[in-house]
Every structure is written in C-alpha cells, then in structure tokens.
Here is the input.
Amino acid sequence: MLAIVCPGQGSQTPGFLAPWLELPGVREHLEELSDVAGLDLVAHGTVSDEETIKDTAVAQPLIVAAGLVAGRLLFDAEALTAATVVAGHSVGEITASALAGALPEADAMAFVRERANAMARAAAALPTGMSAVLGGDPEDVARVLAELGLTAANANGGGQIVAAGTLEQLGRLAENPPAKARVIALKVAGAFHTGHMEPALSVLEALRPTLSPAEPRPTLLSNYDGTAVVSGEANLDSLIAQVSRPVRWDLCMETMTGMGVTGILELPPAGTLTGLARRGMRGVPALALKTPEDLAAARAFVSEHSGAAAVTTQEGNA
Here is the structure.
C-alpha cells in the first residue's frame, strides 16, 4: 500500500523549482497556479531569496503548487483509489486534498491564497514563531511548554514536538530547554496552529461558499486525529479548523502503519516527512521526490506499492 505525503511550511529552499521548469508543461502549469494565487510562483520557485520565500504569504502557495506540479508529472490522480493513502502536514494538507480530488486544483490554490494571507496578517499582529523540541521525556517537555505558555503545535512523532508562541516565550525555551532535549528555531514567521491564528478562521469561512468540496478518491487523512475524512465537506471543515489547532502527524503515521502502508513517497519540497517516517515508521521504505532526476525512481516506487495503473504516462520527463 502506497502513502503519498505532502510537506508543510519550512520545507522550501531558494531555487528548488528551477530544475522542474525544464520539463514540458511545468512552466505553463505553474503560471496557471500563479494566476489563482496572485503570485509569480515561477519567480519565487527559482530566483527569490530565502527571506522572500520565508514570508507566509509566499511560502504556503509555493509549497502547494510544487506538490501539484510534481503530482501531475508522477501519477494519474483520477486512478488513485482508497487503496492509496494521501496525507499532508499543515499546509501540505491542502496539496493532499487537491491530489485526492477533495478540492479542485483551482479551489485549493484559492484556499491557500486566503489562508496564507490571513495567517500572515495574524502573525504580524505580534512577534511569534515556532521551535522544534527534539528528545526529552514527553511529560517533562509538556510541563515546560505549559509553564512557558507555549503550545505543542505539531506532534511529529519520533520524539519531535514543535512549540509555538511569542518570540519571548520561545527565547526562554531556548535558554532553558527540557532535560535531554534540543531546541531548534524553525524558519516560519508565526505561531501556526495555535490561538494566535484564530483571526484567519473567519476569512476561510467566508471563502467556503465559493468552494466545491468532493468526496476524496484515495484515503485522505486529517491532521486533527490521523483518521480518514468521510466527505468533502468534512475535509473542508478540517482544513479550516486546522489553522488554529495542533497538527497530529504522529497520529497520521500511526494510521498509516495500522493500514499496512508499505511505502511512503514525499512530494516536493521533499525530505522532512520521509525523515520523520524513518523514525516514526521504522522499516517502511520512504522516498523523497526532490528533483526531476528522482522521477524514474519515484514512478517505480509508485508501481511497486500501488500498481502501475496509477503512474502517469509521461515517461519522457524522467
């Protein structure tokens, strides 16, 4: 059984889309997505610097677009069935929703556009951020975060918790980390998946009537509790609420393990989720699709774990 996973904010790096533009149709696809996003995603994926693409309003549409581009090159989304699992981490859940057919591609880009802009405004209201807490006793980590007023915004499994809150709170965490734990500041510009993001909820609720959610074709997991969403509307409910509630990627991995997933393929900008899987789903093969040079191996991986029917016919792009 194949799992297709889509990364979240912080996975982007300057120029990561440049090699993809050499493939037929990619520039045109990105330009279509750019029109909906209201951003030049071609420029942001090729020449924009690190500070520019760190901006939430840029990073989120860029990451979703990258996954949609790679997905179209890699497999026939309409051929995916419930025998395939699709999941995304944070903003990657929007990518996953589009690949699963739970949202039309244009709706997904409109959603991430409004989400990103609203979250950027919320983040600008107060200096906030996120830091990864690696290792330590889980109870001790939870105690320290609570004492500092921080939220465990991401439970990523494998001994990794992401704390979110004000920069002052995160500074105190870095100065006095939990015993046997390391604290690493993340390249994000806000305390995502916390109460700091609640102003974005009304923006997305206002967008809801313009969207056309549908029942997902493959098994689509929710970040909320790691379970499969039952309908397009339920998935949309989850996507909206996800903005201000924690991401439980650990539960998504538990579900994938319980379902008997035999291979995990991460779409670009790939690397983060396969790294988590190697710690949280030990023994399950994981492949990160980072550049077009990985397409041939990725197609073979999809065929091995889900059957050749789902693989796109664009072999010339390998």
Summary: Residues 313-318 have pLDDT under 50 and may be disordered. The two ends are 23 Å apart (CA to CA).
